[in-house]
Design a protein that fits this description.
The strands form six sheets. The chain has a six-stranded mixed beta sheet, with no helix packed on it. Strands 1-3-8-7 form a four-stranded mixed beta sheet. The chain has a four-stranded antiparallel beta sheet with strand order 11-12-16-15, with no helix packed on it. The protein is rod-shaped, with a radius of gyration of 45 Å. By secondary structure, the chain is of the alpha+beta class. Helix content is about 20%, strand content about 40%. It folds into three domains: about 120 residues, Immunoglobulins (Immunoglobulin-like), CATH 2.60.40; about 80 residues, Immunoglobulins (Immunoglobulin-like), CATH 2.60.40; about 100 residues, no CATH class.
Amino acid sequence: MEAVVGLISVLLAVSHGVETYCDGRQNGAQCYGALGGTVVLQLINPSEISRFQWTKNNAVIIYWRNNSLIENQIQDRSLFTPSDGTLRINNLSRNDGGEYKLEIYDSNGQPLSSRYLQFSIQAPVSSVLLVSECLSQGEMRVSCSSEGGDSPQYSWTLDGHTLTDAELLSGNKETNNITLKQHVSGNLVCSVRNHVSHVSKEETISDCGFIFINCILCDGTHISQWVFAANNTLCVEPTTTTVPTVGKETETIVSHHSLLICGLRAAVVVLLLIGIFVYFAWKTKSKTAGGSAVQENSVLMVEMRSSATEL
């Protein structure tokens, strides 16, 4: 018997796929195995091994009696170790899932106890892909997709900490799609797990190049919005408006430039008005002086004509 067990041990020495462990000694235990992988079930206490049977849907899977394995319906891919009461099953398939019943008897065949075990098979997550894109106002949408995996669960971290509401514009941090606020940057990690696997993907993200501007234009228009820095023509220099930057110190963005432009424009208008006033004043004075000279010439000509008549 020991030689047979040893031979089986050698044949099953190589583990296939993902290996999981579950303690099934408590009634109602929930155990999980990876599709195509291996599970090690703590099926029974060594002290209880006298006579027992393990069944599924009333069909006997394993029957042990008098230190001998009387029956094993999955013997080509399983190994029961009586010294520790564990059952190892390889190459798990969907058909292995279901409810199992363990019945323990004394040496005389009288029932001592029974317990149930629920066994579920899940496909493991094999890989994770991160895709990010900038939105119109500088937000960043990030999608996390996983290949394979039954009932995947998602979680996110940024520079080692769980994403906060101050960093998330929308989306639950436990879903596969999130939208980050402007100026969020750092090492973003998406983790995908189920009961039989855990895979993560890391990507370094930077802000989308947007800045927050806050100023009043010459026509009284109040500008307060996020704009793409490379194309910005408003509030070019910073104002003393503080803008919260997520996860970092508040960033101060200033802009006296618009006020300077307004002042220069006003000065140009004033100078233009003064110039126009001076021009018209000079023009009026010139016309007045010209009119007086004409009148004096007319009087002189009249006097000259009168003298000539008298002669």
